[in-house]
């Protein structure tokens, strides 16, 4: 065991206080004490390249965000039932990033709460209760949202009103993904209705992060959105992962598919680490909700979090982070494609902006190689580069760095993976 005694002691204290249900990353867990930009520092002062974290999306401890938070925290922070120019101005600015029909927003403190709220909106608007999600989706951890989160595995049952469909996986299926996905959703709607369940909506991470990152071809979600709307349901775009510029093609992942969601959920990168998330929808859907229910959330969209979120939008604009995601992402994808050409263990590369997946398989097959992915992640950690895995088998490298990532950072990562695969 190479873990330092002080780190082992902290792991033990953590286990004593939290129990065993909150796993740490890595066989040799890492203990960070500070960070800036795309670098984190551990307790020994060693620097790690961050190729994984999408919460500090505009860079760790970005000075502009830190200043906005500090100033607002020193000025005013209350619950959310007083007038606030900071909060209202941010809401207006955020809505300005959406197509015109999406004109109403409610703030929360987490992606889970925002998905939960989206489910309430969808139920009230459609009168239905049935939801469809992809087979290994992650949408959150509350009681209601865990029922639409099959990624928790068999220990957390999905709801009786929930149907699972295969993710639009263009690597493992031959049929055109958009058509097959729409057909599967239509079949799930029909199955629900046979069981007396009225369809409420399809909830989809628009890049299918948890299922393994499926992004191509652009436009493949058009058929499924039409199917959902024809059946009287709503399309809920979960933008917690792709949102705020990660795809390099605009602010939101759904834009790649030229579709108009009825409800959009966002979180993670929204406040660069401050807890703020949101549910955005149309005036009609919001009306169906407010006709029957008020909304109050003590912390959701407080002044400090809105100041942080507004500063995040400033940085995305002033540092051109969406075009950086596009250009640097293209460089990363090229580097990974070259790796694939040299290593038979890599079955597929999928990438959009600064979000990339490297799928490990047993050479000559499409059978996932989970052990390989785990080894690469842990060996990269040893070389002080952070990434993780995704997909139902955990055989897919998940590369999702802060949006300030540079071409040089990409080369460091790709070279490290190459070296690991050569010596393995
Ligand atoms: N939706 C997606 C797609 C997510 O990835 C997550 C978090 N992993 C959530 C929702 C839930 O967000 P939170 O952890 O902020 O509750």
Automatic annotation (TrEMBL):
One of its GO terms (molecular function) is transaminase activity. Pfam families: Aminotran_3 (PF00202). Gene3D superfamilies: Aspartate Aminotransferase, domain 1 (3.90.1150.10), Type I PLP-dependent aspartate aminotransferase-like (Major domain) (3.40.640.10). The keyword Cytoplasm does not apply. It comes from the Bacteria. Signal peptide: none annotated. CDD domains: OAT_like. Its cofactor is pyridoxal 5'-phosphate. Keywords: Aminotransferase, Pyridoxal phosphate, Transferase. Belongs to the class-III pyridoxal-phosphate-dependent aminotransferase family. This is Aspartate aminotransferase family protein. It comes from Herbaspirillum aquaticum.
